[in-house]
Specification:
globular; 619 residues; Rossmann fold; alpha/beta; Nitrilase/N-carbamoyl-D-aminoacid amidohydrolase; six-stranded mixed beta sheet
């Protein structure tokens, strides 16, 4: 028998029982309409992947099973997998129910629970012992039937003489390889439920692994990934494949703004033309713009609000919002975009991308006596180029009012020579109430502009520029962002084959050296004179957090890589990095949630835990 195989990526939401079930139903309906026999869906599609500690709750287990039994009648004519947390013998497992034509045949459980990086499965799920099997009694209350026994474990299934297996795997690491299916089990079809989060330069490696697995198993591998943003700041590209014996037969377009994308192959027709990889800057544009708009939609925000300083970080965020609107309108059409993002205030009256931007993104430039015309003109020009609403506030009177009030109480005049940090920080903090007020007026999500480099060394003002409900750049470094902005000015992000989106207004941003503009102009303040070259800062940060090197190892590597700097200078920068790192963990603990974008980040909750109080060890 020849099977038609399909993989459907779904944009699910943790604990959205009705919504998740409805999206699964629509995927199964679409699969039947296309004559599909076997359908793969993402891992934990019923509950959503990011339920976190709710996976420890009995209510989550029960509602997942209830959804499973509710969906069984919808599986007529299909073989499919439905992912859910499953309680077996006092432990909870990450499982898929294998279902055929309305009947529940059994459960396959994940044999490896990760506990590194963004993967904290081991906190919630036990690993299933390889080659073991258990009989689980369940009662389907919807069908008013007595308890029935279902097999659970390391199972394969036979349909019309074709054996089907399930393999949970993204990119193998260590002992994960030992839990994969082996060719001796003779599975001709392998379903791979997936939740592979976006990381720069990861996609091609993942695709190569899947191609290799299909050759190793001599099988057709059907894999479906999650789509959109989830809790913990992970973004999923929605890639779904039908691959057979090393060749791609069907593949979805990545980074969709829809609820579902499906790859279908009848296995007798022509193989698909593989969708080309994006380069790293293009990937970044698509990953973060999808994350921004999907986060806004799922939090039911009335739009986005941004303090646009005329510097690199806020300019990058404004550009990413604009790209997201362009990408989504290209895919969904204007009416489809409006229907998708109904929570944006007055979105239904928009008749163009420019009008969508005016309603969706509100920006403001907040001037003090240390602000320059250069940054003001850069901010205004960018806002006008992308169509965002733009306001200018002069907050200098508020700065002076606070300064005079404190001076009166302490009995002396504040001066830059003795009170530098306090005089800088008050400027950042008085910018917060106005921008929060604008956000509140429309129920918008306030975006924080900090990047990973600043978070590493605490080069931020707590309750100032750190304020917001989302920090979309907190997972990427400043050196990368500056390169990306130059790329957006000269090359641009891919909208469709042969068409890119460039922003020449970014020239005014790119021509500047990054500066906080908090000291008087005579001080010629720049970020890198305050800290160190961003390239070196990011190199130290990566070797420490990602590669887990000691200070002495980092110094040795720095001497090898940066021969144009003296050892004395490198030691000074290294000591400064670790001095600031140790002192500023409390800031990282309090920062707004952000996105995981490359292969590491500093988020204490979802990636790297570090003590708030620690010894400042220096060389």
């Amino acid at each position: 028998m020849t099977f038609t195989l399909a993989a459907a990526s779904l944009n699910q939401t943790p604990l959205d029982w009705r919504g998740n079930a409805e999206r699964i139903r629509r995927a199964m309906f679409a699969a039947r309409d296309k004559g599909v026999n076997v359908l793969a869906l993402p891992e934990l599609a019923i509950s959503g992947y990011g339920c976190e500690d709710m996976f420890l709750y009995r209510d989550t287990w029960n509602k997942s099973l209830q959804s499973l039994f509710d969906l069984l009648p919808e599986t007529r004519g299909l073989v499919t997998t439905l992912g859910l947390p499953l309680r077996v013998g006092g432990s909870t497992f990450n499982a898929v129910a294998v279902v055929a034509d309305g009947d529940l045949l059994g459960f396959v459980c994940k044999q490896h629970s990760g506990f590194s990086g963004t993967n904290y499965d081991a906190r919630w799920f036990a690993p299933w012992p390889a080659h073991s099997r258990f009989e689980l009694e369940l009662v389907c209350h919807q069908r008013n039937q007595p308890a029935q026994s279902y097999p659970v474990g390391d199972l394969t299934f036979l349909f019309d003489g074709v054996r089907l297996g399930v393999e949970f795997c993204d990119l193998p690491d260590g002992d994960i390889v030992e839990t994969l299916l082996v060719p001796e089990r003779n599975c001709e079809i392998v379903i791979n439920p997936s939740v592979s989060c976006c990381q720069l330069e990861k996609f091609s490696k993942r695709r190569c692994f899947l191609l290799q697995r299909s050759m190793t198993l001599n099988a057709a591998c059907v894999t479906a990934n999650q789509l959109g943003v989830e809790s913990c700041g992970t973004i999923y590209d929605g890639s779904a494949f039908v691959i057979s014996r090393g060749e791609v037969f069907a593949q979805t377009q990545r980074f969709s703004f829809s609820d579902m994308r499906m790859a279908v192959a009848d296995m007798t027709g022509n193989k698909t033309n593989e969708i080309p990889d994006h380069d790293v800057f293009d990937d970044f544009a698509h990953i973060v713009s999808l994350g921004l708009l999907d986060y806004m939609r799922k939090t039911r925000a009335g739009g986005l609000t941004l303090s646009l300083s005329g510097g690199a970080d806020s300019a990058a965020i404004a550009t990413l919002v604009w790209l997201g609107v362009q990408f989504a309108v290209q895919e969904l059409g204007l009416d489809g975009f409006i229907a998708r993002f109904q929570n944006v205030k007055n979105i239904d009256t928009a008749g163009s991308v420019q009008e969508i931007m005016a309603r969706l993104l509100t920006t403001m430039y907040q001037r003090t006596q240390n602000s320059s015309d250069t940054t003001f003109k850069a901010a205004k020009s960018l806002a006008e180029s992308i169509g965002a609403t733009f306001y200018e506030f002069n907050v200098e009177p508020v700065v002076q009012a606070y300064t005079r009030m404190v001076e009166q109480q302490i009995g002396r005049t504040l001066a830059w020579k003795t009170d530098d940090i306090a005089l800088q920080n008050i400027q950042a903090r008085v910018r917060v109430p106005g921008v929060w007020m604008l956000a509140n007026l429309s129920g918008s999500l306030l975006l924080s502009t900090g990047n990973r480099s600043e978070a590493a060394v605490g080069y931020t003002t707590m309750d100032g520029d750190t304020c917001g409900g989302l920090a979309p750049l907190s997972g990427i470094d400043k050196h990368f962002l500056r390169g990306w902005l130059r790329w957006m000015e000269h090359n641009g992000a891919s909208l469709k084959p042969g068409q890119s989106l460039r922003l020449q207004a970014l020239k005014a941003i790119n021509d500047q050296k990054p500066t906080a503009e908090l000291r008087p102009a005579s001080a010629v303040q720049t970020d890198e004179t305050d800290l160190m070259p961003y390239e070196i800062l990011n190199t130290i940060e990566g070797w420490f957090v990602r590669d887990r090197m000691s200070q002495s190892e980092i110094l040795a590597r720095l001497e090898e890589k940066y021969t144009n700097h003296s050892k004395v200078q490198l030691v000074a920068w290294l000591e400064r990095f670790f001095l600031l790192w140790h002192r500023n963990q409390w800031k990282r603990e309090k920062s707004a949630p952000g996105f995981h974008i490359d292969n590491y980040n500093l988020a204490p909750r979802s990636f790297f835990r570090f003590p708030v109080i620690s010894s400042e060890v220096v060389l």
